[in-house]
Amino acid sequence: MKKRETNEQMERQQPCYYPREGASTIVVFIHGIVEGPDQFLGLMKRSSELGFASSSLLLPGHGGTGEGFARSSRQQWLEYVNAEIARYKKNYNSIILVGHSMGSLFIVSYLYGKSGANNRHSSYRYPFICEG
Closest Cα to residue 61, out of 37, 45, 77, 47? Predict the structure, then answer.
């Protein structure tokens, strides 16, 4: 794929939400830096097959131009993630958070900020492995 085609593909990405009739759990996918929701399409399909609703977020400044990305900030991304999770909490009993790279770090940040706030169980895996 040529560089121009790659840029056009990124510009076409949109957030995805697939409700599932009767689902009490949603799987929320959070992409990494300079990525987008399309990287989770296969996992979203599998989530639906398993009976879950699913959503793949599009962080502010992503999926558009380099200028839009440059004008966005980590704080905007974090606030957006927190707002989306809060929105889904109104409609679902359980939320499964799945992140890639930077998306995983936002999940860790969210979980640390919500510790003791009615979480029955939270588990995550760091986006890297240290060998020594």
Answer: 77
Q: Where are the alpha helices (DSSP H) in 13-128?
A: 41-49, 66-71, 74-89, 102-113
pLDDT in tens, 1-43: 344 444 455 556 899 999 999 999 999 999 998 889 999 999 9
pLDDT tens digit sequence for 79-105: 999 999 999 999 999 999 999 989 988
Model confidence, pTM: 0.80
92 and 54 in contact (C-beta within 8 Å)?
no
Q: Which two tokens stand for residue 114?
A: 């919500």
Give phi and psi for 60, each to the nearest 5: -55, 135
* Nearest Cα residue to 26 out of 77, 84, 105: 84
Neighbours of 36 (CB within 10 A): 23
